[in-house]
Design a protein that fits this description.
2 copies of one chain form a homodimer.
Chain A (H helix, E strand, L loop, with lengths): L7 H19 L4 E2 L1 H8 L3 H9 L11 E2 H11 L6 E6 L3 H7 L2 H5 L2 E8 L8 E2 L2 E5 L3 H7 L4 E4 L3 H14 L3 E4 L13 E4 L2 H13 L7
Chain lengths: 214, 214
């Protein structure tokens, strides 16, 4: 049975469910109804049931969801049963912060190398991760099994770096540079995360006419 | 004339238009049609016209948009005509990276202070920004005009910090901790940015059945 393509909105809610389920499990909750999960996550019970139905549905009528089972199922859907080898190109503030981000290690992501053109000096270590000259990136990717390339370079070079990553064989790119990267023809998954887009959404709301707010 | 409430999806596309318009202006482009803007941004011309109509519409039939005027109008909608005083609570990797993020300075955001309980040591400077003990946050906010509070603390204390920010009078919160913060009763705008939700969207796609990809 082939599942139909799941919408982007549903996919983007799955990590949120996962986050809440990890918390519920930590707090010793064993089962939960869609209604309660809705109250936690700020969604409606029917939305949650619809979302889960995209993946076949996980609940039992009258019982709800087993928290650990649901958490593990969603972890599987999100690919968290695997381990990911990651490189970061751009060892500036954001690149260094990500290299130091212990949460990623806990979730199965290992930063194998940082690449940059200048500072921090090539050959130094950031949180035990060596900084390499960016010219060595392709060779590194071919020699190691690199699953994800993170781009934290200035905007001007981000697209070029993404193309180089794709040519070297990286299949997943997480881009923080303030430019939209997409590589539809190369079978590469790209997730663009624009910090300033999020900040400007906040300033929009700060300046909204109070009468129009919810 | 009261504008009706603009949907979240439209609001979230405005920073993206702004980003592209800044680029177009930098590249000397003076005017642009919705079709061309659509090709740039990956949206359809009719989507763009609909989005802009939520704010009254900016184009002229047969002319398109004047790039600089449109950029300035959207900057105004996003509140970028103002200057924002920002504090960051949580001077770990992400907090330090944000304190160092020069893009924010260029866009009118000044980080006035960092707050933490431990490292980097209180009293040290990160990119010229002093690290204060978190107990002093309320006093600092009352003495200075603080518009936005950024939360980069561990998950366990994020909600408490958000409540303390709101009580001290901060009206905008940008939360990076992996927990959803909302303060609907206190007239505080909150934007949650979850790095790992974005990363898990990428791993979802990396593990998707190729036949189901677009």
């Amino acid at each position: 049975m082939v599942r139909s393509r799941v919408s982007d909105a549903v996919i983007r809610r799955m990590p949120r469910y996962y986050r809440y389920l990890v918390d519920l499990e930590k707090n010793g909750v064993e089962r939960i109804s869609s209604e309660k999960l809705g109250r936690y996550t700020g969604l409606t019970a029917s939305q949650i049931r619809q979302d889960f139905n995209c993946f076949g549905g996980f609940g039992q009528q009258g019982y709800g969801y087993n928290v650990t089972d649901l958490k593990n199922t969603i972890a599987g859907i999100l690919g968290l049963h695997k381990h990911y080898q990651v490189i970061i190109v751009g060892a500036g503030n954001v690149g260094q912060a990500l290299a130091n981000y212990t949460n990623f290690k806990d979730e199965g992501f290992t930063v194998a190398a940082l690449f940059d053109t200048q500072s921090p000096p090539v050959g130094t270590f950031v949180n035990g991760v060596l900084v390499w000259p960016v010219e060595k990136m392709e060779a590194f990717v071919r020699e190691h099994q690199v699953d994800i390339g993170i781009i934290t370079t200035p905007q001007s070079v981000a697209r070029k770096i993404a193309e180089r990553m794709a040519e070297a064989g990286i299949k997943g790119i997480w881009n923080f540079a303030p430019v939209d990267v997409s590589l539809p023809e190369q079978d590469v998954c790209v997730e663009n995360l624009h910090l300033s887009d999020s900040l400007l959404t906040l300033t929009y709301h700060l300046n909204e006419d109070p009468a129009k707010k919810e």
